[in-house]
Amino acid sequence: MAHTIESRLSEAGITLPDAAAPAANYVSYVHFGTSLQTSGQLPMENGKLAMTGKLGGTVSLEDGQKAAKLCAINILAQAKAALGGDWDRLGRLLKLTVFVASEASFTEQHKVANGASDFMVEILGDIGRHARSAVGVPALPLDAPVEIEALFEIQ
């Protein structure tokens, strides 16, 4: 499994960043039993927020999907750190919860979330197929357009 995930990341041209440290009084992830819960991840790239704004406003659907993919990349970085780099301990992705900063008239949060969902299946294969919620919210930290948290099964 470890080789497969690393090779899929490489084929996709993705180098996982170092897992970001928490920005306040929380932890980046929590192990409980056979589960791993990540804190919400923002669309960070090279240590900075890649974009700001709201879907249905200054952020296009395509840019929202890119933001969701960046969140997913950061989720995998957190998972890798939580597992001590041992991808063989990853059971499957159980659920993504996707928060989309949206104007009131925007109703395509599910399409924004596809940016993360499609990426997770591309990289993780069948263990990346997951349950999901996509929720429109009025604002997110730092004016981020998307924030995503994940729940994984671990071994």
TrEMBL record:
<feature type="domain" description="Endoribonuclease L-PSP/chorismate mutase-like">
    <location>
        <begin position="6"/>
        <end position="144"/>
    </location>
</feature>
<dbReference type="Pfam" id="PF14588">
    <property type="entry name" value="YjgF_endoribonc"/>
</dbReference>
<protein>
    <submittedName>
        <fullName>Enamine deaminase RidA, house cleaning of reactive enamine intermediates, YjgF/YER057c/UK114 family</fullName>
    </submittedName>
</protein>
<dbReference type="InterPro" id="IPR035959">
    <property type="entry name" value="RutC-like_sf"/>
</dbReference>
<dbReference type="InterPro" id="IPR013813">
    <property type="entry name" value="Endoribo_LPSP/chorism_mut-like"/>
</dbReference>
